[in-house]
TrEMBL record:
<keyword id="KW-0458">Lysosome</keyword>
<feature type="transmembrane region" description="Helical">
    <location>
        <begin position="420"/>
        <end position="443"/>
    </location>
</feature>
<keyword id="KW-0812">Transmembrane</keyword>
<dbReference type="Pfam" id="PF07690">
    <property type="entry name" value="MFS_1"/>
</dbReference>
<feature type="transmembrane region" description="Helical">
    <location>
        <begin position="377"/>
        <end position="400"/>
    </location>
</feature>
<feature type="domain" description="Major facilitator superfamily (MFS) profile">
    <location>
        <begin position="19"/>
        <end position="448"/>
    </location>
</feature>
<feature type="transmembrane region" description="Helical">
    <location>
        <begin position="12"/>
        <end position="34"/>
    </location>
</feature>
<feature type="transmembrane region" description="Helical">
    <location>
        <begin position="288"/>
        <end position="308"/>
    </location>
</feature>
<feature type="transmembrane region" description="Helical">
    <location>
        <begin position="159"/>
        <end position="178"/>
    </location>
</feature>
<feature type="transmembrane region" description="Helical">
    <location>
        <begin position="343"/>
        <end position="365"/>
    </location>
</feature>
<dbReference type="GO" id="GO:0005765">
    <property type="term" value="C:lysosomal membrane"/>
</dbReference>
<comment type="subunit">
    <text>Homodimer. Interacts with lysosomal protein GLMP (via lumenal domain); the interaction starts while both proteins are still in the endoplasmic reticulum and is required for stabilization of MFSD1 in lysosomes but has no direct effect on its targeting to lysosomes or transporter activity.</text>
</comment>
<dbReference type="InterPro" id="IPR052187">
    <property type="entry name" value="MFSD1"/>
</dbReference>
<feature type="transmembrane region" description="Helical">
    <location>
        <begin position="249"/>
        <end position="268"/>
    </location>
</feature>
<keyword id="KW-0813">Transport</keyword>
<dbReference type="GO" id="GO:0022857">
    <property type="term" value="F:transmembrane transporter activity"/>
</dbReference>
<feature type="transmembrane region" description="Helical">
    <location>
        <begin position="190"/>
        <end position="212"/>
    </location>
</feature>
Length: 461
């Protein structure tokens, strides 16, 4: 056997980075579609005559199947049992199909005036929501798949930088959605136009992933030839779930993830309204300051990922990131700090927190979970995150706002809507951040006891 055959493909710099480029592109397309409806809310209300409650129903559909049908947990298990090629293609195809259904629902007139019996929900809202729910399964499972793919290719190399680059690239999708969604919709005078662009992007993402599959097959072959595939090929057993759940560090990182993202993702959903209600920003500029966040995280996630690779300190980075979150939310809580420049400065600091934690969290999991169980482990983490951060907390904040925070009525262009005091929701977000710090500290202590190596560099020196 020649030396060239003996070496696994993952030792090739070009192959490693090409694989990263391809899966990151597929993720970018997914994040575009995940966020493209947010800037379209006013157009949806004008053209499709959806109410805010209907928009909220649709937005929440993202997590329906993931959480209540346990699709994320099954997805992780399928990934470990069937591999990245099967799971990646399946989830990419699901994203395309889900987005196509959503596009059809918001573009057709055949659903006009139809209502779903018993549920009393407009048929258009329901069909769009079901499409979004299917898409939600696809994007979350491809997220787990991409993370496991990167862990495989970059083990012993720049794993945190690679994961940071993947998350940073995906956030370009979010930034594109926030920046381009409304102008495209307005230009074509159709909510469906930016969604159709999403279907096209996802189809290109699927084709790109098919190319990745060829590389993955080649990687399998070279790993086999070089005798490095034993761990990966050991079959996944259902009892592995028990094994994963018996690791205290796994629980700490899962709870930290749920708490941290609960103080970020739902906050972002309400941030434009907070800007208007507390910081007296004009309605038409409501999204301008929160919109800075994805841009700030794109380079920062990469910088902190690179730092983790070279210097380590993963648990400390997660604690610092969570602390920044506490500081930012506390600033948003203080009633007299209401100048827009305060909001701008706080959002920039939030960008640091929102980069520090993801760039240290995701590459830390392979330090204490074996590769063959990684899909299941990430699936369980994402499931908990979906349950708490993408479904439970947004619902709780909406309830708290309606029940305890209405202070009067705002009238804009002759249209009246409730005026809210955001102090209580911001106290909740601050507490979530504080709890995230506590679980970060617990994780760091567990790392010291068990020696996971979270404070050590990821890159073999
Ligand atoms: C890597 C991580 N991904 C997630 O948290 C996903 N479960 C949610 C994706 C939401 C897309 N707007 C991240 O994005 O930090």
């Amino acid at each position: 056997m020649t030396e060239a055959i003996k070496r696994s493909l993952r030792h090739s710099v070009a192959a490693r980075w090409t694989s990263l480029l391809i899966v990151s592109f597929t993720m970018l397309c997914g994040y575009y579609v995940a966020d493209v409806m947010s800037p379209l809310k006013p157009l949806i209300e004008q053209q499709l005559k959806w109410t805010s409650a209907e928009y909220g129903f649709f937005t929440g559909a993202y997590a329906w199947f993931n959480v209540f049908l346990g699709m994320l947990i099954f997805g992780g298990i399928i990934l470990d049992k069937m591999g990245a090629r099967f799971t990646g293609i399946l989830s990419s195809a699901l994203m395309v199909a889900g987005c196509a259904v959503k596009w059809w629902a918001v573009s057709t007139h055949s659903l006009d005036h139809a209502v779903v019996p018993l549920l009393n929900v407009k048929a258009q809202v329901m069909v769009a929501s079901l499409g979004f729910a299917a898409f939600g399964v696809g994007i979350e499972i491809i997220g787990v798949t991409a993370t496991k793919v990167i862990a495989r290719w970059f083990r012993g190399y720049e794993i945190a930088l690679a994961m940071g680059l993947q998350v940073g690239t995906a956030r370009i999708g979010t930034a594109l959605a926030l920046e381009l969604g409304a102008p495209i919709g307005a230009y074509f005078k159709a909510v469906g136009a930016p969604v159709l662009l999403g279907v096209i992007l996802l189809t290109i993402g699927l084709v790109a992933y098919v190319f990745y599959c060829a590389m993955d097959r080649k990687l399998d072959k070279t790993e086999e030839e070089s005798g490095q595939s034993s761990e990966d090929e050991e079959a996944f057993r259902i009892s592995d779930i028990r094994e994963i759940l018996s690791i205290k560090g796994f629980w700490y990182i899962t709870i930290l993830c749920a708490l941290f993202y609960s103080a970020v993702f739902p906050f972002l959903k309400y941030a434009p309204d907070l800007m208007v209600q507390k910081f007296h920003v004009k309605d038409s500029w409501a999204g301008a300051i929160p919109g800075i966040l994805p841009f700030a995280t794109i380079p920062l996630t990469v910088v902190f990922g690179n730092y983790y690779d070279r210097k380590g300190k993963g648990a400390s980075l997660m604690i610092i990131g969570s602390l920044l979150l506490v500081v930012v939310h506390f600033i948003f809580t203080v009633p007299f700090l209401s100048h827009w420049t305060v909001a701008l400065a706080a959002t920039i600091v939030l960008g640091f927190g929102f980069s520090l934690v993801p760039s240290a969290m995701w590459p830390s999991v392979p330090k204490f979970i074996p590769h063959r169980q990684l899909g299941t482990a990430y699936g369980l983490i994402f499931w908990t995150q979906n349950l708490v951060a993408l479904w439970g907390i947004p619902y709780l904040i909406g309830y708290v706002l309606d029940r305890f925070c209405i202070t009067g009525t705002r009238v804009v262009d002759g249209v009246s809507s409730p005026a809210y005091n955001y102090t209580l929701p911001m106290v909740i977000f601050t507490c979530l951040g504080l709890l995230a710090v506590v679980f970060g500290l617990l994780l760091k202590r567990e790392d010291r006891i068990k020696g996971f190596g979270l404070e050590l560099p990821c890159r073999e020196q």
